[in-house]
Amino acid sequence: MLDRIILASKSKVRKEILDKNNVKSVVMPSNVDEDVVKLSLLKEKASPEIISKNLAEIKANKISLKKTNEIVLGADSVIDLNGELISKPKNREEAMTILKKLNGKSHHLISSVCISKNGSMVWNYTDKATLKMKNFSEDELKKYLSKISDQALYAYNVYQIEGEGKNLFESIIGDEDTIMGLPIKKIKKYLEIYDN
Questions:
Q1: What pTM was computed for the model?
Q2: What confidence tens digit (pLDDT) does each residue in 39-73 have?
Q3: CATH number for the 5-195 domain, one of 3.30.565.10, 3.20.20.140, 3.90.950.10, 3.40.630.30?
Q4: Active-site option among 3, 35, 76, 195
Q5: Which terminus of the chain has a lower count of CB atoms within 10 Å, N or C?
Q6: Residue 91 has what DSSP assignment?
Q7: CB 123 within 8 A of CB 102
Q8: What pLDDT, in 10s, does the model give residues 164-189?
Q9: What DSSP string describes 11-75?
Q10: Is 76 a catalytic residue?
Protein backbone atom coordinates (compact mmCIF):
# COMPACT_ATOMS: atom_id res chain seq x y z
CA MET A 1 0.00 0.00 0.00
CA LEU A 2 1.34 3.42 -1.00
CA ASP A 3 1.26 5.50 2.21
CA ARG A 4 2.36 8.79 0.73
CA ILE A 5 4.33 10.52 -1.98
CA ILE A 6 6.90 13.29 -1.72
CA LEU A 7 6.06 16.51 -3.54
CA ALA A 8 9.29 18.10 -4.78
CA SER A 9 7.68 21.54 -4.94
CA LYS A 10 6.89 24.37 -2.54
CA SER A 11 3.73 25.26 -4.51
CA LYS A 12 0.81 25.59 -2.10
CA VAL A 13 -1.66 25.08 -4.96
CA ARG A 14 -0.08 21.75 -5.96
CA LYS A 15 -0.17 20.55 -2.34
CA GLU A 16 -3.84 21.63 -2.09
CA ILE A 17 -4.72 19.69 -5.27
CA LEU A 18 -3.11 16.53 -3.83
CA ASP A 19 -4.89 17.01 -0.48
CA LYS A 20 -8.26 17.60 -2.16
CA ASN A 21 -7.80 14.37 -4.11
CA ASN A 22 -6.82 12.35 -1.03
CA VAL A 23 -3.24 11.80 -2.18
CA LYS A 24 -1.15 11.88 1.00
CA SER A 25 2.02 13.87 0.47
CA VAL A 26 4.89 15.54 2.25
CA VAL A 27 6.57 18.62 0.80
CA MET A 28 10.30 18.61 0.09
CA PRO A 29 11.19 21.48 -2.29
CA SER A 30 13.94 20.58 -4.75
CA ASN A 31 15.35 24.15 -4.86
CA VAL A 32 16.55 23.57 -8.43
CA ASP A 33 17.85 26.74 -10.12
CA GLU A 34 15.22 26.82 -12.87
CA ASP A 35 16.75 29.78 -14.71
CA VAL A 36 20.05 27.96 -15.26
CA VAL A 37 18.24 24.89 -16.62
CA LYS A 38 15.96 26.99 -18.87
CA LEU A 39 18.88 28.98 -20.31
CA SER A 40 20.84 25.86 -21.14
CA LEU A 41 17.80 24.21 -22.78
CA LEU A 42 16.91 27.37 -24.71
CA LYS A 43 20.48 27.43 -26.10
CA GLU A 44 19.78 23.93 -27.42
CA LYS A 45 16.55 25.26 -29.02
CA ALA A 46 14.39 23.04 -26.80
CA SER A 47 10.62 23.50 -27.09
CA PRO A 48 8.59 24.82 -24.12
CA GLU A 49 7.19 21.24 -23.69
CA ILE A 50 10.70 19.78 -23.41
CA ILE A 51 11.76 22.50 -20.97
CA SER A 52 8.72 21.90 -18.76
CA LYS A 53 9.23 18.11 -18.82
CA ASN A 54 12.96 18.37 -18.09
CA LEU A 55 12.41 20.70 -15.15
CA ALA A 56 9.78 18.39 -13.64
CA GLU A 57 12.17 15.44 -14.06
CA ILE A 58 15.21 17.25 -12.59
CA LYS A 59 13.16 18.30 -9.53
CA ALA A 60 11.79 14.78 -8.94
CA ASN A 61 15.15 13.05 -9.50
CA LYS A 62 17.02 15.42 -7.16
CA ILE A 63 14.80 14.59 -4.18
CA SER A 64 14.43 10.96 -5.25
CA LEU A 65 18.20 10.44 -4.98
CA LYS A 66 18.05 11.43 -1.29
CA LYS A 67 14.87 9.49 -0.47
CA THR A 68 15.41 5.92 -1.57
CA ASN A 69 12.40 3.72 -2.30
CA GLU A 70 10.05 6.70 -2.02
CA ILE A 71 7.76 7.95 -4.77
CA VAL A 72 8.67 11.56 -5.62
CA LEU A 73 6.50 13.87 -7.71
CA GLY A 74 8.12 16.78 -9.55
CA ALA A 75 6.11 19.36 -11.51
CA ASP A 76 6.66 22.38 -13.69
CA SER A 77 4.50 24.79 -15.68
CA VAL A 78 5.48 27.23 -18.41
CA ILE A 79 3.69 29.65 -20.70
CA ASP A 80 4.28 29.23 -24.44
CA LEU A 81 3.43 32.33 -26.49
CA ASN A 82 4.00 31.38 -30.14
CA GLY A 83 7.15 29.44 -29.22
CA GLU A 84 8.44 32.05 -26.76
CA LEU A 85 8.93 30.71 -23.25
CA ILE A 86 7.48 33.01 -20.58
CA SER A 87 8.68 32.40 -17.04
CA LYS A 88 7.41 33.63 -13.68
CA PRO A 89 8.02 37.35 -13.12
CA LYS A 90 10.76 38.44 -10.71
CA ASN A 91 9.15 41.80 -10.01
CA ARG A 92 6.02 43.81 -10.78
CA GLU A 93 7.57 45.48 -13.85
CA GLU A 94 8.23 42.05 -15.37
CA ALA A 95 4.67 41.00 -14.48
CA MET A 96 3.31 44.02 -16.34
CA THR A 97 5.51 43.25 -19.37
CA ILE A 98 4.18 39.66 -19.41
CA LEU A 99 0.55 40.81 -19.18
CA LYS A 100 1.11 43.23 -22.07
CA LYS A 101 2.63 40.43 -24.16
CA LEU A 102 -0.33 38.13 -23.49
CA ASN A 103 -2.94 40.90 -23.87
CA GLY A 104 -5.55 39.99 -26.51
CA LYS A 105 -3.64 36.87 -27.59
CA SER A 106 -3.90 33.11 -27.28
CA HIS A 107 -1.16 31.20 -25.52
CA HIS A 108 -0.53 27.70 -24.20
CA LEU A 109 0.02 26.82 -20.58
CA ILE A 110 2.07 23.63 -20.37
CA SER A 111 2.23 21.57 -17.18
CA SER A 112 4.53 18.58 -16.81
CA VAL A 113 4.69 16.07 -14.00
CA CYS A 114 7.29 13.42 -13.34
CA ILE A 115 7.36 10.57 -10.84
CA SER A 116 10.80 9.30 -9.84
CA LYS A 117 12.06 6.51 -7.65
CA ASN A 118 15.66 5.97 -6.54
CA GLY A 119 16.92 8.86 -8.65
CA SER A 120 15.27 7.83 -11.94
CA MET A 121 12.09 8.83 -13.70
CA VAL A 122 9.50 6.04 -13.74
CA TRP A 123 6.59 7.98 -15.27
CA ASN A 124 5.87 11.39 -16.77
CA TYR A 125 3.03 13.29 -18.37
CA THR A 126 2.73 16.66 -20.07
CA ASP A 127 -0.56 18.44 -20.72
CA LYS A 128 -1.37 21.68 -22.49
CA ALA A 129 -4.22 24.17 -22.11
CA THR A 130 -5.02 27.05 -24.46
CA LEU A 131 -6.03 30.40 -23.01
CA LYS A 132 -7.09 33.52 -24.89
CA MET A 133 -6.72 36.73 -22.96
CA LYS A 134 -9.21 39.57 -23.40
CA ASN A 135 -8.00 42.95 -24.62
CA PHE A 136 -7.28 45.32 -21.76
CA SER A 137 -6.05 48.89 -21.51
CA GLU A 138 -2.81 49.50 -19.62
CA ASP A 139 -4.80 51.02 -16.74
CA GLU A 140 -6.99 47.91 -16.50
CA LEU A 141 -3.87 45.70 -16.38
CA LYS A 142 -2.37 47.90 -13.64
CA LYS A 143 -5.61 47.66 -11.67
CA TYR A 144 -5.61 43.85 -12.01
CA LEU A 145 -1.97 43.63 -10.84
CA SER A 146 -2.70 45.83 -7.83
CA LYS A 147 -5.16 43.18 -6.58
CA ILE A 148 -2.59 40.36 -6.70
CA SER A 149 -0.33 39.82 -3.68
CA ASP A 150 3.44 39.55 -4.19
CA GLN A 151 3.39 35.98 -2.90
CA ALA A 152 0.74 34.91 -5.41
CA LEU A 153 2.37 36.80 -8.26
CA TYR A 154 5.79 35.21 -7.87
CA ALA A 155 4.47 31.75 -7.11
CA TYR A 156 1.93 31.25 -9.89
CA ASN A 157 2.97 33.57 -12.69
CA VAL A 158 0.76 36.50 -13.65
CA TYR A 159 -2.61 34.83 -13.33
CA GLN A 160 -4.33 32.43 -10.99
CA ILE A 161 -7.13 30.69 -12.76
CA GLU A 162 -8.83 29.85 -9.46
CA GLY A 163 -8.91 33.50 -8.33
CA GLU A 164 -8.82 36.98 -9.90
CA GLY A 165 -7.10 35.63 -13.01
CA LYS A 166 -10.23 33.94 -14.34
CA ASN A 167 -11.55 37.38 -15.37
CA LEU A 168 -8.59 37.94 -17.69
CA PHE A 169 -9.73 35.37 -20.23
CA GLU A 170 -12.09 35.29 -23.16
CA SER A 171 -11.72 31.53 -23.52
CA ILE A 172 -10.04 28.67 -21.69
CA ILE A 173 -9.68 25.27 -23.34
CA GLY A 174 -8.19 22.56 -21.18
CA ASP A 175 -8.11 20.95 -17.78
CA GLU A 176 -8.26 23.41 -14.86
CA ASP A 177 -5.90 21.23 -12.79
CA THR A 178 -3.36 21.41 -15.63
CA ILE A 179 -3.66 25.21 -15.63
CA MET A 180 -3.13 25.22 -11.86
CA GLY A 181 0.02 23.13 -12.36
CA LEU A 182 -0.95 19.54 -11.58
CA PRO A 183 -2.90 17.25 -13.97
CA ILE A 184 -4.15 15.21 -11.02
CA LYS A 185 -6.40 12.75 -12.91
CA LYS A 186 -3.41 11.25 -14.76
CA ILE A 187 -1.29 11.20 -11.59
CA LYS A 188 -4.00 9.32 -9.68
CA LYS A 189 -4.42 6.85 -12.52
CA TYR A 190 -0.68 6.12 -12.47
CA LEU A 191 -0.57 5.82 -8.67
CA GLU A 192 -3.50 3.35 -8.73
CA ILE A 193 -1.64 1.15 -11.24
CA TYR A 194 1.59 1.49 -9.22
CA ASP A 195 -0.21 0.55 -6.02
CA ASN A 196 -1.65 -2.71 -7.37
A1: 0.90
A2: 999 999 999 999 999 999 999 999 999 999 999 99
A3: 3.90.950.10
A4: 76
A5: N
A6: S
A7: no
A8: 778 899 999 999 889 888 999 999 99
A9: -HHHHHHHHHTT--EEE------HHHHHHHHHHTT--HHHHHHHHHHHHHHHHHHHSTT--EEEE
A10: yes
